[in-house]
Each structure stands twice: as structure tokens, then as C-alpha cells.
Amino acid sequence: MPSDSSHISIQNSPPVAVLAYCMSSIMMTVTNKYVLSVGHFNFNCILLAVQSFVCLIVILGLKSAGIVNFRNFNSGEAKKWFPISVLLVAMIYTASKAMQYLSIPVYTIFKNVTIILIAYGEVLWFGGNVTPMALLSFLLIVLSSVVASWADITSAAPGSESAAYGIFNLGYFWMFANCLSNAGFVLFLRKRIKLTNFTDLDTMFYNNLLSIPVLLVGSIIFEDWSAENVALNFPPATRNVVFSMMILSGLFSLGISYTSGWCVRVTSSTTYSMVGALNKLPVALSGLIFFDTPVTFANCSAIFLGFLAGIVYAVAKVQQQKQKDNILPTSNKA
């Protein structure tokens, strides 16, 4: 009995869920970055489809061995879950297009604007409120995005002016589309989990199963399957390495697939997104250190404001939890 109760408490612990999600996210980021950096790899949808397929095979194998258990496939539940898979592909595609036109720090910082959309989406769909301190963290996010875009304009202007601003505008169009699809994915995911009472493994099963056909169709529509591009993505010299790393990333996706649903279930969509944003800030720093992004005062300021926004939001959530803890005993006495 004690072991069961401790297992349940861990499963419902927000700090444990957040920590597990952070570790899984960092591992996935490192693996994906390696795959995408080998040669000229641009089959993002195929990479995600392989990850989903490997993840699906592993959890079905564990279920058949009696190690884990989750609900069987149901066509009615699949139809209701399908829009989440479509939003997932839209999120992946628009992210890859935004990254094509924007620098890594600018992309990462603007991604944080999604948190504001999710926060107010949660107020509309799930009730609750946005505290003044949480609002301050959102304002800091907006400010960091403005500073980042200003740095982007000033660094792009010295080149070919018309071309630079054409790319600038197109990049921000894809960034805006990515923010909308990302917010829609996270909010619909939480809504569906609440309506269906899915366990974390149920969420994992349906997410991976339904994502595969959508990702394959998305790849056929949006990705270049010409012989030249296939040869460019899978050159003979590194072909086996790329395939091996794609399969390995699929094994790592087990962690991110499970902990994403877990984190959304025990915390909130906004907290989940804020944790993801803070995870990506080191990636923004890596763009300054390892890539050709110029190190400027504006870039560094934007990243600092992003970190500060995360700290302010964390403090806001702690204060909000303390208020709940203070209210609950009095309500019980009444």
C-alpha cells in the first residue's frame, strides 16, 4: 500500500512532472539538433513520423508483455482526437518555416508569445484568472520579443534591403501562424484529456498513432521528395548514421511523449508552455555562441528579459498556490 500511494503522489506531483518534462525536452532537443545538422536534412515531418512510429511500437510491445496498460483503439475517440494531430503537424511545419527565415534567438523569444495566447485561452475554456504578476511576466515576454525583432531589423538592414525585409516579413508570418497552431494544440490537448479522462499512456498512444498518417501526408504535400533532395538528405557517407539517430530520437521521444501529457494534466497549459519556453532559452544562447547570429546588446537583452519573464511567472504561480492553500482550510471549516 505505501508504495502504491507514493506512486500516485509522484504521478500527481507538478514539480516532478515539470522536471521530467524538462529533462526529456532537453534530450530530444539535443538529438533532433544532431539529426537536423547532419548534411542538409529538411524532412522534419518524416523525422517526427519515425519518432512516433518507434514510440508506438515500444509502448504496444510493453502492453503485450503486460508491463503497462492503456485503453484499446476506439474509432469514436480517434475522431475526436484527430484535430489535435492535425494541429501538431501544423505546429511542426510552421515552426520549420519560421526557423528558415528567422535567427534562432528571434525565433525562440517570439515563440514565448504563445504563452499569452494559451493563458487567455485557459481563462476562456477552463476558468481561472490572470494575476497581476503573471500579467507582468507576459508583458516582459512581449518586451523581449519587441527587442528581439528590433535587433533582427538592425542586423538585416545593412544587406540587400528589399530582400532582407521580404524575408523578415515572411518569417514573421510563419512565426504568427506557429504561435496560433501551438496554442491551439496545447489547449485542445488539455481539453480532450479533461473530457475523456485519458491517462498519460492513453494520451501517448493516441498522439503517436494518429500523428503518423498526418505527418506522412504533410511530408508528401509540404516536403521536397525529388531525387536530388532525397540524396541530399541521405548521402551515402552518413546515411546509416542519420537512420540510426532517427531511431534513437524515436526512443528519446518516449520520454517527451509521455511527460508532455503528464505535465499538461497535473499543471496547466500555461505552465507547460512556460516550462517549454525556459527550456528553449539555452537554445537561443547557443545560437549566439555556436552559430552566425551576431552577439549584440539587443540580442542579449532580449534573452535576459525572457529569463526574467520565466522567473516572474514562477513566483506568480507560487503565490497563487499559497492563496489556494490558505483558502482551502477555511472553506473546509465552513
What does this protein structure show overall?
Homooligomer. Belongs to the TPT transporter family. SLC35D subfamily. It is found in: Golgi apparatus membrane; Cytoplasmic vesicle membrane; Endoplasmic reticulum membrane; Membrane. Involved in the import of GDP-mannose from the cytoplasm into the Golgi lumen. With 334 residues, this protein is an all-alpha fold. The protein has one domain. The protein is globular, with a radius of gyration of 21 Å. The C terminus is likely disordered.
Distance between the termini: 32 Å
- Described by the principal axes of the CA atoms, the overall outline is globular
- Structural domain count: 1
Number of extended strands? 0
Total helical segments: 13
Segments where pLDDT lies below 50 for 5+ residues?
A: 157-168, 328-334
The multimeric state of the shown protein is: single chain
Question: Strand-residue fraction?
Answer: under 5%
Mean of pLDDT: 74
Helix/strand/pairing category: mainly alpha
What proportion of the residues is helical, as a percent range? Answer: over 70%
If you compute it from the alpha carbons, what radius of gyration comes out, rounded to the nearest whole angstrom?
A: 21 Å
Order of helices and strands: HHHHHHHHHHHHH
| Main beta sheet strand tally, sense and closure | none
